[in-house]
Amino acid sequence: MSYRAPVADMIATMRHVAGLDQLVTDGLAPELDDGVVEAVLDEAAKFATDVIAPLNRVGDKFGSTLKDGVVTTPPGWKDAYTAWAQAGWNALPGPEAYGGQGLPTLLQSACTEMWNSAALAFALGPLLTVGAIEAVHAHGSEYLKETYLAKLVSGEWMGTMNLTEPQAGSDLNALRTKAERQQDGTYRITGQKIFITYGEQDLTANIVHLVLARLPDAPAGTRGISLFLVPKYLVNADGSLGEHNDLRCSGLEHKLGIHASPTCSMAYGDKGGAIGWLIGEENRGLACMFTMMNNARLNVALQGVAIAERAYQQALAFAQERRQGAALDAPKGAAMSPIVVHPDVRRMLMDMRAKTQASRAISYQVAEALDRSHRETDAGKRKAATERAAVLTPVAKAYATDIGIDVASTGVQIHGGMGFIEETGAAQHLRDARICTIYEGTNGIQAIDLVLRKLPLSGGEAVKALIAEMRGIVAQVEGANAPGFGHTAVRLKAAVDALERATEWMLATMGTKQGDALAGATPYLKLFALAQGGTGLAKKALATGSEPDGANDLATARFFAELVVTEAPALELAVTEGAGAVEDAAAVFAA
Amino acid sequence: MSYRAPVADMIATMRHVAGLDQLVTDGLAPELDDGVVEAVLDEAAKFATDVIAPLNRVGDKFGSTLKDGVVTTPPGWKDAYTAWAQAGWNALPGPEAYGGQGLPTLLQSACTEMWNSAALAFALGPLLTVGAIEAVHAHGSEYLKETYLAKLVSGEWMGTMNLTEPQAGSDLNALRTKAERQQDGTYRITGQKIFITYGEQDLTANIVHLVLARLPDAPAGTRGISLFLVPKYLVNADGSLGEHNDLRCSGLEHKLGIHASPTCSMAYGDKGGAIGWLIGEENRGLACMFTMMNNARLNVALQGVAIAERAYQQALAFAQERRQGAALDAPKGAAMSPIVVHPDVRRMLMDMRAKTQASRAISYQVAEALDRSHRETDAGKRKAATERAAVLTPVAKAYATDIGIDVASTGVQIHGGMGFIEETGAAQHLRDARICTIYEGTNGIQAIDLVLRKLPLSGGEAVKALIAEMRGIVAQVEGANAPGFGHTAVRLKAAVDALERATEWMLATMGTKQGDALAGATPYLKLFALAQGGTGLAKKALATGSEPDGANDLATARFFAELVVTEAPALELAVTEGAGAVEDAAAVFAA
């Protein structure tokens, strides 16, 4: 089943939920006037549908393979990547000084969603390149910028992130890869990295590895980690490619999903040390990584939205075709109806749709906040936007990827027995979606980040400002007096009340009983997402009421409020009264 | 990671939740005195752990393959199956007149759980054989019983169920396979069947297919379906195998999971018609199928429990080994701790444990009710037990298989990046678990069955009796005054109240607004499961308080009540006030 980019909902979400119109009015996105958004999204939609989407199943079936150190991507992938980069899509987010278009993150986000809906394993490589570009652009020397940025921005070369080692996953304290200073100012890198996405591939002429490593005299822990740029091929002074660096792909993982994305074990320095260049300052490598963390986490959130959207479209198309059982109101002996008429199937499809659109709402709000954090001229407004993005990023990353799995699984269910057959394609979405809750910081780490680092920003004011905004939307729904909203206002109000109380509890508890706060971190994040996503959908429905799709937006907001947001009181209890039950586990698992 | 059968919890659940002690006291299970239960379970545990469990990953990796109509099961599977059948395990549930042991379903259920934890794809074949035995035993002619039952009971031959056709999945009205009467009293069967589990295999010398088909003069719809026994090899009068019947495996599905279980397309009658024997009466085939439906659905529920248990064990073992991050209370600079000490990991593990044990509680209660439905001498008690089993069967099937997916997915999450790597084995559990919510009636069908067929039994009294029982347990928890229960009593009471109100609403609504009732069927089933499972765990904790494992049972019951059952009010709202939002979907999906 082919993918159709949901351009109308993307634009409605950008305009009415994420505040694109206001961004333009405020003069912060002058490049987006005169139908630029529509034009870019329509072109991107065409490329995603026509070129990338058909590769998704091929990529899953053939996967990337490793032979004698050479990785081969699936049939058709190299051509598609080359065409995609040549069409300028890789350059969309890049800095203008190096050939990029520097378009707002909000617009990029919709495109990112499309590439990932079309083929998550395809879109993943360029996302890592974006991270490499950001790190080099923000912290690299002039030499590194001049040598690498233009090629990375155009997509002629790809970038990678080398963090994980067997003993160091979520905990980077334990990193062991070594870097030794050389007379010429370069470094020699030695060590093993695992789980390196697109660590080796046949799509681009060179690969630019960003590698975390330790200097011999570095302090222990994360304050002793430095970031290095280690190219696959050294680059000559004239920009041509020179010698192969001392690094190789030593293995490829056999994974549950994203088979086409090569997940490599990388060996650095078999022959004495790979040549690397320091990015930023020695021992400040983690700070460089954090520069790009928010964007990378937003991009993974968009992967969750993307896979959910694709799974939803596929399930809906199947449900409109597949006939089993007669409709309730059909005369006796009537022919079988499309299963979309059965109430339980409708419930499942609305659940998929509402969760997908709510996740899109939250994710695009992160994108808009990031744009404001860079573009506001007033320092106070920049700070507010930065904190807003900081708070909403873990919410978007964890919720969108959690529902990515959930929605893809429901998609399998709607297909019945056919869903379990790989040729149908529904199962691939579930397999692919399963990684997004794990990489770029597990969702448990996101919840801890929200509670311990983000909630305290400006003494809790960043979160309180979001809650006040939610209250404003609830008041508008109450005032709208639109029967189509059903019980939306009362359900949303209950969720926002619950979030406010849970927030107070968290702020009061984290200092004194950190263990209790951490036990409630995951339900707190989910509660936040329900309130944020629920009010986001309501905001959209309030704005589109008079448009052709307005009735559908209303129905979607109502469904989310009445059948999803209703979990809020349970989540509040999990936060404020759940720690005891979690602590009991200490004895249960004591062995 | 190896599987260890949770014999202690199985026995505690049998005794204290499912009422094994009372069954023995009532004289209804005389064969289970003097430590028979312990002895059987210990032997089964040994076989499951030593012989079957190591085959699980092999089975996934190699799968079953088809070449020239011959299916080859994975390396080691034939030897293991033969040893398992020879040890008498296949005969455990069989009727004594044909060499079976006729042991109570309750005891069988614990064994069934073990085989499925060890390897779901392995255990699945024998489960279908059980169904074939039941159908032939209950409805077959003396000739069929004499010819087939002993071999099926011993496991020398396997049985299959042939229901599904491409156009007829959940809706059997649409069946097209033809059966034509012959002079000699046999029938000629012609048609295509799909999704036939173990339809062809190399484990047994013969395969006994039960096939649903239509006679030429049959009425339309499900009242025109007959059931036939169609052996792969015809059986001579002396019991030896004769000619190959006119049937073949025409294809094997490429599935998300249970790769070792061959899912066959079957072609009957390429050469004029496969020879079949009628089971029961003409046009009464569905009634024969329903005979075995409750048992089959219980067995799939046990598959959900089984896969959840195995995923839980694997995640717990990983969390006790894997070190990342220091514990909260560790001194600064301390070494990394096993991740099991981190609150969010504890929460996930307790969630897995509690849902698994709650599902076990519900499933074993179904088994006990089935035993009473066969063994009670008083007709009134037999009827009550039959209705109790009827009500709880869809609850067990849907809830246990839903949490099977949920728990297996959390297991992947606890493994972090390693969880996404197939060699780890955590992902296989998720892939395998994904079928259980689909086959043997999708979980949506289970919910409809609960609401439309089971709830009205004895005018709702069957359900009300269960609710009264739950209230009794809540009162005991209230009276226990045990601090370890935390808020268990109040949370369970809220759930039982919600279930009672939702039940009243359902009974009042199903006659007048069936669409509204069906829109709430799935949340109603889940609400039922939370109340039934939550009170089940509490009942166990009440009984084991003074035993060594009592504290763990208490902690598990508390966690389920405080962090899982708390969804009950949201589910009640979904039942009683959710239909409007579901109905809005009609317009959304009208295009």
Automatic annotation (TrEMBL), chains A, B:
Its EC number is 1.3.99.41. This is 3-methylmercaptopropionyl-CoA dehydrogenase. Residues 161-266 form the Acyl-CoA oxidase/dehydrogenase middle domain. Involved in the assimilation of dimethylsulphoniopropionate (DMSP), an important compound in the fixation of carbon in marine phytoplankton, by mediating the conversion of 3-(methylthio)propanoyl-CoA (MMPA-CoA) to 3-(methylthio)acryloyl-CoA (MTA-CoA). The keyword Flavoprotein applies. Its cofactor is FAD. It catalyses: 3-(methylsulfanyl)propanoyl-CoA + oxidized [electron-transfer flavoprotein] + H(+) = 3-(methylsulfanyl)acryloyl-CoA + reduced [electron-transfer flavoprotein]. Keywords: FAD, Flavoprotein, Oxidoreductase.
